[in-house]
Amino acid sequence: MNFLYFDPGLGAMIVQAVVAAAAGILLFSKNAWYKVKAFFGLLKEEDDTYDSIDIEDNDAETDDTDEHKK
Predict the structure, then answer these.
(1) Domain containing 23: what range?
(2) pTM reported for the whole predicted model
(3) Which keywords belong to this entry (predicted)?
(4) What is the C-alpha to C-alpha distance for residues 41 and 34, in angstroms, rounded to an integer?
(5) Between the CA of residue 56 and those of 36, 51, 62, 65, 68, what are the distances in Å?
(6) Is residue 54 a part of any domain in this protein?
(7) What is the pLDDT of residues 16-66, one digit of tens each?
């Protein structure tokens, strides 16, 4: 009977392959599920909280021109 020899390097490689496969399956399924939900229109619209930080260009330009006119 032939016995296989597993050294620590091979064991670490097997563990790494299992973890990488699990992460790949998780990310692929998450992306695929998102596309399915988007296709059927089941996505919820999330509010973008960062829009309120933007400064409108028109307001900044009118303030500058009003100061120069004085």
Answers:
(1) 8-46
(2) 0.47
(3) Membrane, Transmembrane, Transmembrane helix
(4) 10
(5) 36, 10, 11, 15, 19
(6) no
(7) 999 999 999 999 998 888 888 888 888 777 655 565 565 666 655 555 555
